[in-house]
Amino acid sequence: MIARSVLLVVLLLGACTVAPAPASVLRVMTWNVLTARYDPADWAPVIAAQRPDVVALQEICASEATALAALLRARGLVYTAVPGPVVPSPVEDAAPVNAALRRPCADRGAVTYGLALLTRLPVVAATTVLFAPDRRDEQRGYQRVDLGGLVVVNAHLGLNGTAGPQLATLAGVVAGERGPVVVLGDLNREDVGPLGSLTPVGSSPDRATSTPIGGVGAIDHVLVRGLGVVGADAPEVPVSDHRPIVAELSR
């Protein structure tokens, strides 16, 4: 598993080509939750404490995303769950590198493990896209969720040298969007240069001492275009090997 040290980076990818929404603050969160070791009941208090409008989750089962939304609704936070299973082809599914996908979710043949988005905003459209299969790592992919004037991309990139081409693909996706975009996820890279010119606005290490931005192990990111940055945080939590990254964005 990945070290818990994380980096928050905000990527300003250029001016928006549509009129901005009325002034408001959008609270977003990204979190690799490490399922199979932890469960929705463990994650719900963390999300409820942060109260994000949108939370992108990695390493989660589809059924867990639905259960998590139900737990949060019981706390008075009405979220829509948008599961994004990373489902490989039958041939890739049988490959040894993908064997781990079956274990966390007990999905009995249909892989339901991967990504999910919880949102308090209306969902206009949602798709899950697979990156090209690569024998060096398990199948990876990203979600694209249209929240009506705002596109959120939830991504989990690969290990063992696979993240580079996947990041280039992600850059093409972002470049093709016309309006405001938020990219959230575990990119498994400190350098996300192919997505454009970076402006780092904060760093939260997994220790109390200060760590320079760009430190070793910084892989979880919030990237935005067409939105301003109000604030950011990465609270320490005991229920994952990653810290959640939380950012407040102005619209």
Features:
alpha+beta, 5-stranded mixed sheet, 6-stranded mixed sheet, single chain, 251 residues, 13 strands, globular, 33% strand
Write structural notes for this entry.
The protein has a single domain, classed as Endonuclease/exonuclease/phosphatase (Deoxyribonuclease I, Chain A), CATH 3.60.10. By secondary structure, the protein is of the alpha+beta class. The chain has 4 helices and 13 strands. The N terminus is likely disordered. The chain has a 6-stranded mixed β-sheet with strand order 4-5-3-2-13-12, with helices on one face. It has a 5-stranded mixed β-sheet with strand order 6-7-8-9-11, covered by helices on one side. A two-stranded antiparallel sheet has the order 1-10. InterPro entries: Endo/exonu/phosph_ase_sf, Endo/exonuclease/phosphatase, GPI-anchor_lipid_remodeler. This is Endonuclease/exonuclease/phosphatase family metal-dependent hydrolase. It comes from Actinomycetospora corticicola. Pfam families: Exo_endo_phos.
The DSSP helix count reads: 4
Q: What's the total count of β strands? A: 13
When the domains are counted, the total is 1
Helix content: 10-25%
N→C terminal distance: 35 Å
- Classified by CATH, the class is Alpha Beta
Biggest β-sheet: strands ordered side by side in the sheet: 4-5-3-2-13-12
CATH superfamily: Endonuclease/exonuclease/phosphatase
Shape: globular
Radius of gyration: 17 Å
CATH architecture: 4-Layer Sandwich
Q: What is the structural class?
A: alpha+beta
Describe the biggest sheet?
Answer: 6 strands, mixed
> CATH topology, what is it called?
Deoxyribonuclease I, Chain A
Report the β-strand fraction as a percent range: 25-35%
Uncertain segments are 1-22, 196-216
Elements, N to C (H/E) = EEHEHEHEEEEHEEEEE
Overall mean confidence score, pLDDT: 80
GO biological process, one term: GPI anchor biosynthetic process
Pfam family, one: Exo_endo_phos
InterPro entries: Endo/exonu/phosph_ase_sf, Endo/exonuclease/phosphatase, GPI-anchor_lipid_remodeler
Protein name: Endonuclease/exonuclease/phosphatase family metal-dependent hydrolase
